[in-house]
Design brief:
The protein is α/β, with parallel strands linked by helices. About 40% of the residues lie in helices and about 15% in strands. It has 10 helices and 8 strands. The structure holds 1,3-dihydroxyacetonephosphate. The site of 1,3-dihydroxyacetonephosphate has 14 residues, from strand 8.
């Protein structure tokens, strides 16, 4: 019922030439994959090249951020309309690095999601607790707040949720399938409170040190519908292995 989705978040990595080289190596090895959706989020400067390279494939291109205003005096920001213009079909919003390094609040993220959806972008909405919050037994409270505030006034269409425990991002410490499934089950129950039965159709991705070695165990969990991958998405062969997790 929920098509698996494997998404790449390249973060602040790859030049335009490196982006082109990635797709030249990656696309031929995933051409036969029709049962898994693929999204790749390069940095802004590589979006147009990535969109051009993937034009005749099923791979969708996402941005890693978007601002909520339409246009104007917002130095350094990029609007949803500009992302569409560059060939994007999706956008990552609420990533923990933007929450914690760039100090984005739930309220700002909520506005960004609304603007992105209004332009027809699919939204990969990221949530997740810090290590200190998990150790203090606050994981569910954090997830509830992030979902409630982040998705306030927002319908479920076009939303993918990505659960990325901050302690697992870039640390090599993947959540065990049990820990991840428990969080995903809770997130789905929050979505069910909000959206009713539609929650069963919303994809929830896991992110945080996903590798070709651990992806199978995670994807075997009933509420894990895909992965949002940082480090292991930068090499065409390892990302292709992730996309081909079920082969
Ligand atoms: P890593 O896969 O490098 O841990 O990054 C996860 C992530 O933040 C994806 O958005």
């Amino acid at each position: 019922m929920r098509t698996p989705l494997i998404a790449a978040n390249w973060k602040m990595n790859k030049t335009i030439a490196e982006t082109a080289a990635f797709f030249d190596a990656f696309l031929p090895v995933v051409r036969d994959v029709t049962d898994v959706d693929i999204i790749i989020a390069p940095p802004f400067t590589s979006l147009a090249t990535a969109a051009e390279k993937t034009r005749s494939s099923s791979v969708k291109i996402a941005a890693q951020n978007a601002y909520f205003e339409e246009k104007g005096a917002f130095t350094g920001e990029i609007s949803a309309a500009m992302l569409i213009d560059a060939g994007c079909e999706a956008v990552i919003l609420g990533h923990s690095e933007r929450r914690h390094i760039l100090k984005e609040t739930d309220e700002v993220i909520n506005k960004k999601i609304k603007a992105a959806l209004a332009h027809g972008l699919e939204v990969l909405f990221c949530i997740g607790e810090l290590l200190a919050e998990r150790e203090a037994g606050k994981t569910n409270d954090v997830l509830r707040t992030q979902i409630t505030a982040g998705l306030a006034g927002i319908p479920s269409e076009g939303i993918v949720v990505a659960y990325e425990p901050v302690w697992a991002i870039g640390t090599g410490k993947t959540a065990t399938p049990e820990i991840a499934q428990e969080a995903h089950d809770f997130i789905r129950s929050l979505l069910a409170e909000k959206y009713g039965d539609t929650a069963q159709t919303i994809r929830i991705l896991y992110g945080g040190s996903v590798t070709p070695e651990n992806v199978k165990g995670l994807m075997a969990c009933p509420d894990i519908d895909g992965a949002l991958v940082g480090g292991a998405s930068l090499k065409p062969d390892s990302f292709a292995q992730l996309v081909r997790f079920n082969r």
